[in-house]
Amino acid sequence: MENLALIESFSEFKDDKQIDRVTLMAILEDVFRNALKKKYGSDDNFDIIVNPDKGDLEIWRNRVVVADGEVEDPNEEISLSEARKIEDDFEVGEDVSEEVKLMDLGRRSILALRQNLISKIHEHDNTIVYKQFKDMEGEIYTAEVHHIRHRAVILLDDEGNEIILPKEKQIPSDFFRKGDNVRGIIESVELKGNKPAIIMSRANPLFLEKLFEQEIPEVFDGLITIKKVVRIPGEKAKVAVDTYDDRIDPVGACVGMKGSRIHGIVRELGNENIDVINYTNNTNLFITRALSPAKVTSININEETKRAEVILKPEEVSKAIGRGGHNIRLAGQLTGYEIDVLREGAEEDVELTEFSDEIEGWIINEFKKIGLDTAKSVLEKDLAFLVNSTDLEEETIQEVINILKEEFEE
């Protein structure tokens, strides 16, 4: 009972960790073997008998009886006179099994045992948590805000597991208070030391895809397939959907009557504007749909360079580009093509690259990013739009405008 009482004192904290008794006893055996190695130099001649039902274990040391004065290894050998103190009929050459009480290890060793046991159980718990969350990578998970740091929000789930939501993986409009429930996907799980680092993301395109699976039955059932998702978190997203069933309108099914189905997803993402697009293998048609709500007049595609020249009526250009260039940028990401927007009747226009002697290349590229690659396309926009849509200073934009105006004044 002495061993049992000590083991119970070691494992009194196990209930907090929800560790089963069989696993606990296996960890205990490992811990005790380490202690025996430290005290006796080896544990090879020790038998540890574990009884998980009783929560007890016994330790037996096996030694060979040798003649008095011939003991070379006191851990493996016992003198005849010492052996006969255990049983008086032992003879030289026989095996002696003697039970080792935990108290025999000494107070300091018992304290070390306890610390080692706690460490091993934490390690076991961390391994279980790591495996649990590793299997959930890419899945939606909900946890509660525990505290808010400058660069991350720390969440706790119902089991007390810590989940990190870094600032860069939040939607820009996200605002959390302690106690709020937060949804996101488990983006990555890594072991740092022995502790699992669980990272959540709300900005990952996969989060939007998983929300579609949760909220739209046809997507969950596999009747509608999500081909690709691209996002500018909190601003705009484009989702290409397809179906093998001709009776289903995939876009209509995803959006719902008056947007009823997609409304909850939009609200979850901080009113992110979501365009749902019918996927097609026809590249021209796919690019046309991707540039919605703009109406495309014609498209010229270069398959080698993966570039597409899209010609639109002047009044459609701003729709194709979108606020801050978001629409054209996402259309390019969705289709895999670099999209250049040209205006109908732009023969008298001049490509911005023609001004490379006066305007630096990186400045021209900033305008190209938002679909403005000719002089007139820049001059048609007001200064405020250009400042808000590019990373250029107002003075730089004004200088460009002055250079372009001179070209047409001549």
Describe this protein with a few key phrases:
410 residues, N Utilization Substance Protein A, Chain:P, domain 4, OB fold (Dihydrolipoamide Acetyltransferase, E2P), four-stranded mixed β-sheet, 15 strands
Protein model, in words:
The structure is a single chain. By secondary structure, this protein is of the alpha+beta class. Among the domains are: 2-131, N Utilization Substance Protein A, Chain:P, domain 4 (2-Layer Sandwich), CATH 3.30.1480; 140-201, Nucleic acid-binding proteins (OB fold (Dihydrolipoamide Acetyltransferase, E2P)); 204-279, GMP Synthetase, Chain A, domain 3 (2-Layer Sandwich). It has 16 helices and 15 strands. It has helices spanning 2-10, 14-17, 21-40, 80-86, 107-134, 205-215, 217-220, 250-255, 260-268, 283-290, 314-321, 326-335, 361-369, 375-379, 383-389, 394-409, and strands spanning 46-51, 56-66, 77-79, 95-99, 140-148, 152-156, 162-166, 181-192, 195-201, 224-232, 236-243, 273-278, 296-302, 307-312, 338-343. The strands form four sheets. Strands 7-6-5-8-9 form a five-stranded antiparallel sheet. Strands 1, 2, 3 and 4 form a four-stranded mixed sheet that branches. Strands 10-11-12 form a three-stranded mixed sheet, with helices on both faces. Helix 3 packs across helix 5, helix 6 runs antiparallel to helix 9 (260-268) and helix 10 (283-290) packs antiparallel against helix 12 (326-335). The protein is elongated. The model has no long low-confidence stretch (mean pLDDT 85).
